[in-house]
Amino acid sequence: MASLASGTLPRVIILHAPGTNRDREAALACELANGAPEIVHINQLGVGDRRLADYQMLVIPGGFSYGDDLGAGRLWANDLYHRFRDDLDAFVASGKPVLGICNGFQALVKAGYLPGPAPLQRVTLTQNQQGRFECRWVRLQPLPNSRSLFTRGLEQDILCPVAHGEGRLWIDDANQSRALFDQGLVGLQYAPTVDGAFTTAAAAYPDNPNGSIGNIAGLCNWAGNVFGLMPHPEDHVLAWQHPRWSRGEHDGMGLPLFVNGMRAAGQF
Amino acid sequence: MSDSAMATDRIYRVCVSPQPALVNATSVLADISTLGITGVQGIVRSDLYFLRGDLDDADVQTLCDELLVDPIAQTATWGLVGVISDQSDDALIEVGLLPGVTDSVADNLLARAALIGVDGLGAASTARSYTVHGHVSQQDLTAIAERLLCNQVIEYYALGQLVPHVGDAHHATELRAETIAVRNLSCEELQALSRERLLSLDLNEMLAIRDYYEREGRDPTDVELESLAQTWSEHCVHKTFKALVDYVEHGHDGVKQRETIDGLIKTYLRAATQSIAAPWVISAFVDNAGIVALGDAHEVSIKVETHNHPSALEPFGGANTGVGGVVRDVMGVSARPIANTDVLCFGPLDLDPTHLPTGVLHPQRIYGGVVAGIEDYGNKMGIPTVNGAIWFDEGYTANPLVYCGCVGLAPRGAHPSGARPGDLVVVLGGRTGRDGLHGATFSSLELTDETGELTGGAVQIGNPITEKITLDAMLVARDEHLYSAITDCGAGGLSSAVSEMGAETGVEVDLATVPLKYAGLQPWEIWLSEAQERMVLAVPEGHKARLQQICALYGVEMTVIGRFVDSGRLLLTHGELQVADLSMSFLHDGLPRRRLRGEWHAPVWSQADLSDAASSLRAVTLDMLAHPNIRSKEDVVRRYDHEVQGATQIKPFVGVHADGPSDAAVLRPLELRDSGLGIALGNGFNPAYGKLDPYAMAVSAIDEAVRNVVAVGTDPARIAILDNFCWGNPALPDRMGSLVRACKGCYDGALHYGTPFISGKDSLNNEYLDTVSGKQVAIPPSLLITALGIVPDAERCVTMDLKTPGNRLYLIGETRRELGGSLWLQVTTDSGGMPPGIAPFGPALARALHGAIAAGHVSACHDLSEGGLAVAASEMALGGRLGVDIDLSRLPGDAASELAPVERLVAESNARYLVEVAPDHAAAFEAAFEGLPCAAVGHVLKEPEVRFCAQEGAMPLLELSLSEIASAWRGHIDG
């Protein structure tokens, strides 16, 4: 993937761990959002070949880091904590945008960055309520009160696929889950599909594909610069990726999230 | 381990359980009730970790906090093994992996412990613990353990706490290369030797080996004998397809036609490709995968493999490594895998367990394991699984079929052609263990109820992440031109990979340098092991350092194990010990050609009787839609990631609610983003025709595969196909005769459409001998045709869901009295009729249809296959949540007019499509089909009703509501 494309475009580091597999799509999304993405292996950071501080935005993309062994995202979270903690803490504290998608979200949650502050893990992403991996398209509704810089100003729903087995956002306390909403830490919610068949207010399976509490699909930190979500907005950045493109539908691209990220990144 | 195994060596047991609110046992409980066991009220699965080494309680607490336990979702109990006791009254079933079986979780745990400051962890293993609530007898617990939870081919279990295998010492065995006397053996003794060592070689082949060693004046080593058996195995060398065949066809009139066939591949498959001579075929039948050109700058590769025998014994591992293996085939032509396809055949899921042959797993269990295995490998590799089929038939009960296919993309010319003397032999990826020994020869044996015990080693568990990082490193190496040849370690392991790469040159390997999972392997085991996730590269000395750098970055193990030389010999050592010295020419060309006999009795076709059909039409049509082979497979397909890589333009399911079944997938890999080019992937498969006439099965499978990819927008002049035969024992003349018939069909069908074969595979001996009953059972002859098509303008692609009320519906293609093997007759358990044959207008129709799609005249298109027009129209209506009104008197072609209305509705003639066209495009569409069978047969309705009438204005012959169709076709998913 092209790197350092232009001096003026925000530099985006897309982190790659063993088993990462949606890094190329994340890079394309950043490119289309006018960023200059570079896919960087964590070992390149480890040996000092690349430095986190040299970039203006961080994307932790999807995949199966370490094969989901010991729980999805657990070992990558452990990497973040033990190998890159100081650099990552500094990056987060600086206010630069950080986006975790799917496996990247799992890693940020388990390392405590979401909802934060790290390193205490406050919520979890656990096995889907259906008990199996599922790939299907979902509709995501942005929450107007969200602190997330990624969803700021978004009025349209986002339509994109989920593809995970451990994406159920869970917390063992109803008060705490309400607090996530009250504090503006929920960025995106699974929304009921808007057509004849499903019209109830709260999304049920399969609109909420994994049983997440409060239909939470994406969370941010208090500062709003770290955001994670289970679905894959990077898989809907081209018109023909829409599941009903052949029916003339073209709503709900995932690109605005990346455009927002890039706008914020451009300030650093 | 040995150093630390002193007084401080302890084993801890950690049991990690879900929080009560997260316990979800619905599916296991349902499985238990299918065993007829009542009284189980609940079952909770916990994860077990056994930790061994110089550890104390603080270490274990650290491991729990940082790695083993999710503080929000889980809780843990732990203590020393033998000290920690189970305090509850509930029953326990615990299941662990047998020593030597891949345990990637334990490997990751071990690697990570040091990073978090626990240096004393010397070994780890994982297991599962099931707490069973309720009143259950020991006998029931045993049944649950053995029939649901534990597969004793790779696992062991205990009712109660498991005695762990963790860091067990491997017995150091004396290293040796045994010499095996063959020179003085009689024919009987040679055959006995082949049997005892699982060589799967016949007498002629054993005699050729004996003669070779008589000329050499010595006896073979075990390494040599095993190498020969592997190189000469059916799996690796396709000797049945290369054999001379004496073939007799018995006509109806008692006339016999005899011919001698000079090899099936040469006479039919390769001959078709040569005769078609498509200029865009880059590689056919030569490399690990077939390759075609795509645009000016790229090439697409494809391979479809089978992994049947391993999947019968260990469904998860068999299917898992089946996917891993075919992905490596595509890596073996230097390509990046971009899509997977899987076609699966099982016995009926509701099979009465008492009818199960001895030693055979229940179809439900095989199905569950196979689907999970495919899901695991494909998803973790990040390869979208976008195409496939599932077929149920009692004939697959003991021999399930697992066809795994993979498509790859590479820059044109990126795959280097050959190892040169002086190049290093480099192994990349996984380590070598005792797993998968004898896989190549085992796949050539018939299964019996003892196969599991005898060849447990043939079953492997994959580690997709090891393969993923190997792929990541390989692609960088490819782009930097660091290797001069590459191949994967598949069946036959290093033996197959290295000796094929060195066939033209010669090669020397020191087996002592091969990295092992554990000590104690004999030289022949190292050479033959089929351990997964290994690639072999020929690397010029000067590129070694750079390759090492890349491998270090990606965490891939890389080892130089030898060198290509110009000796023309295979020379193997283990340190100082020489263990093989074989002539490459004998190894590769010394195999005597087989001569087989085939017979075919031409069937006499009776007429299928559909005279009473009108009265049962409604019920049978709904039954057809609900038939296990037809109904929605969404519950399986959604477990496969079909979106990863962001290239899936036509998805497996399309339409308003994404539940209409696509004809084919269309992919637009990001590399091709600006070109508008697409890659279509489809398949044709119908063993029901094969039971009547394998010739009809072959031409129909080709026709269906072509239809599938043409229906979405493929240019019919740019379709390559693959053959994949799963058959019984070819030594039996009736099996061989039916194979010949199928190959003749392949030849005729390929020439008809001008679609070259670019790759193929055969899996023979799919028979099961029940040693208790003495019954021998073969699978139905099964031919899978996979089609790879190029879509010139993906923006013009078409999906199958109906789009707009008022649009016209055209049926194109001739409907003939072809009901043999039809879904109608399967559902009504009737017989008779002729299966579909070659459709004369097929190629012209495909060209005309492509022209219409490319011109933007088509709104929706679906091919007619099982269940004919009735099923196709219902599926299109469901996809678009719209109705149809079709007049059966208007079907095109003279043949249709001779059929009764019901026959027109359910006949399965080839080369037919139902096409939706907007009124504005109707004139142009009709012009494109001038002189071809094509007729406007109805239109799209706003009302959710599917209506067929026998003639215009008549009362509908059949009327179904969309909700009836939905509940028949996907009721098993919606519940």
Account of the protein in words:
The complex is a heterodimer of chains A (268) and B (975). Helix content of chain A is 23%, strand content 21%. Chain A has 268 residues and is an alpha/beta fold. Chain A has one domain: Class I glutamine amidotransferase (GATase) domain (Rossmann fold, 3-Layer(aba) Sandwich). In chain A, the strands form two sheets. Chain A has a nine-stranded mixed β-sheet with strand order 2-1-3-4-11-10-9-6-7, sandwiched between helices. In chain A, strands 5-8 form a two-stranded antiparallel ribbon. In chain A, α3 packs across α5. Chain B has 975 residues and is of the alpha+beta class. Chain B has 32 helices and 40 strands. In chain B, the strands form eight sheets. Chain B has a seven-stranded mixed β-sheet. In chain B, strands 35-37-34-38-36-39-40 form a seven-stranded mixed β-sheet, with helices on both faces. Chain B is globular. The model of chain B is unreliable at 1-7 and 452-456 (pLDDT under 50). Classes of the chains: A alpha/beta (268), B alpha+beta (975). At the A-B interface, α1, α3 and β6 of A face α2, α3, α13, α16 and α19 of B.
Name its key features.
heterodimer; A: 268 residues; alpha/beta; Rossmann fold; two-stranded antiparallel sheet; 11 strands; 23% helix; B: 975 residues; alpha+beta; Mth169, Chain: A; Phosphoribosyl-aminoimidazole Synthetase, Chain A, domain 2; 7-stranded mixed sheet; globular; disordered N terminus
How are the strands of the biggest sheet of chain A laid out side by side? 2-1-3-4-11-10-9-6-7
- The mean pLDDT of chain A is 93
- Mean pLDDT across residues of chain B: 93
- The backbone outline of chain A, from C-alpha atoms, is globular
Number of domains of chain A: 1
Which two chains form the greatest contact, residue counts included?
A-B, 58 and 63 residues
| Helix and strand composition category of chain A | alpha/beta
Measured distance between first and last alpha carbons of chain B: 52 Å
CATH topology of the domain at 181-262 and 416-591 in chain B: Phosphoribosyl-aminoimidazole Synthetase, Chain A, domain 2
Question: Unreliable segments of chain A (pLDDT under 50, ≥5 consecutive)?
Answer: 1-5, 195-201
CATH topology of chain A: Rossmann fold
Rg of chain B, Å, rounded = 29 Å
CATH architecture of chain A: 3-Layer(aba) Sandwich
